[in-house]
């Protein structure tokens, strides 16, 4: 941030009175501009034994497969956001229910990814502008080497393990920063825009499944 | 938002290409400025059978009691934020562990409140600048008519019910907008600043406790 949203004057980086960390503060009207992490919300939607995945028509990770997900918008609940994204990206309709399933911190991308479980009302799909394709995958057909984001891969693996175990529990985890990687490609910088997952550029920590 | 953070020029409200809702867009550099809900993170911290509450030294709800909580900051996990707030507001130290306990949507305040369970490492407390007091309460002594926020009250009631039942589960819920109230005072407008709960000005919906 270079300019104040309130008066258009330049901002400077300093610790406001009564605060304990640097913020962007307006040099004229002294408005303090806070930056907070954002929520990405998505859903594991099933039709019979198959799981809905969308193939990304946009960057980052163009052409890769993902669960329908994107930035939570103002005025909605996290679950409403997950089902909205499901509609926008896959043209899919659920029965309206969504069960909280996974909460994954992605601190280096300044995000929290939240995934719900939902049932599709019909198997009819209609990929939206942000999707090249939307398809229902049986477990054996999931394109593991083409999954867009590590939070999506973690959530899919938790879902499949729970389904095999015959019970679903809540999962939490975090994505470790790219700096801790010892192999693999350099991560792209985190991007920030609405309606889509940012590139979290990391890898999941040991999964921390916990019973409710 | 009246001015662009990138170039300081005036913004206008319009729907960007490829989007489906109005955003603030810069009239000169065309940067789109997204607004997303923010996470408030807090903790139910216990020492033996007692629960830590802080008495607010700041508005909104000056003088009321709350669980230690505040806006999640960038670069931390939600749990780390909850324990940071516990340190800042109560001078309390935990054993470092935090179990996800409640996720409550507050859509009209553009917030999600997330609460964890934690154990204090010692009963020593040292109220911070934002607290008039910090104290450990036995269940019978909780000042129910002096609780600052409806999400805090809901979380406390879930916690006590679970403790009586001998097992803790994950809880989700939402705060209904003030417009749906039929009695009670007019809510204050939602405020937005870091390090503290905003005034959510609503009341909890029927609690949606669900087993993990």
Protein architecture, described:
- Two copies of one chain form a homodimer.
- With 212 residues, chain A is α+β, with helices and mostly antiparallel strands.
- Chain A has two domains: 1-35, Ubiquitin Ligase Nedd4, Chain: W (Single Sheet), CATH 2.20.70; 38-178 and 189-209, Nucleoside Triphosphate Pyrophosphohydrolase, CATH 3.90.79.
- Helix content of chain A is 14%, strand content 31%.
- Chain A has helices spanning 78-90, 150-165, and strands at residues 11-14, 23-26, 32-33, 38-47, 50-56, 65-66, 69-71, 99-106, 111-119, 131-137, 171-176, 203-204, 208-209.
- In chain A, the strands form two sheets. In chain A, strands 4, 5, 6, 7, 8, 9, 10, 11, 12 and 13 form a ten-stranded mixed sheet that branches. A three-stranded antiparallel sheet of chain A has the order 1-2-3, with no helix packed on it.
- In chain A, strand 4 and strand 5 (50-56) form a beta hairpin.
- At the A-B interface, strand 3, helix 1 and strand 8 of A face strand 3, helix 1 and strand 8 of B.
- Chains A, B: Residues 36-160 form the Nudix hydrolase domain.
- Chains A, B: This is NUDIX hydrolase.
- Chains A, B: Residues 174-212 are annotated as: Disordered.
- Chains A, B: InterPro entries: NUDIX_hydrolase-like_dom_sf (IPR015797), NUDIX_hydrolase_CS (IPR020084), NUDIX_hydrolase_dom (IPR000086), Nudix_N (IPR029401).
- Chains A, B: It comes from Lautropia dentalis.
Give a brief rundown of this model:
The structure is a homodimer of 212-residue chains. Chain A is of the alpha+beta class and 212 residues long.
């Amino acid at each position: 941030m270079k300019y104040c949203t309130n008066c258009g004057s330049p901002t400077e980086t300093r610790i406001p009175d009564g605060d304990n960390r640097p913020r962007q503060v307006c040099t004229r009207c002294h408005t303090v501009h806070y930056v907070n992490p954002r929520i990405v919300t998505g859903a594991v939607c099933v039709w019979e034994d198959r799981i809905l995945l969308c193939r990304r028509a946009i960057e980052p990770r163009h052409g890769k497969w993902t669960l329908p997900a994107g930035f939570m918008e103002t005025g909605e609940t996290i679950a409403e956001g997950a089902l909205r994204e499901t509609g926008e990206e896959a043209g899919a309709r659920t029965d309206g229910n969504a069960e909280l399933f996974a909460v994954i911190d992605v601190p280096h991308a300044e995000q929290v990814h939240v995934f719900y479980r939902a049932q599709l009302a019909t198997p009819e799909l209609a990929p939206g502008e942000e999707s090249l394709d939307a398809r229902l995958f049986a477990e054996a057909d999931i394109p593991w080497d083409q999954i867009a984001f590590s939070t999506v891969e973690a959530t899919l693996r938790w879902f499949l393990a729970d389904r095999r175990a015959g019970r679903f529990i809540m999962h939490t985890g975090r994505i470790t920063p790219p700096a801790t990687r010892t192999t693999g490609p350099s991560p792209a910088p985190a991007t920030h825009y609405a309606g889509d997952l940012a590139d979290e550029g990391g890898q999941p920590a040991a999964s921390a499944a916990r019973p409710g």
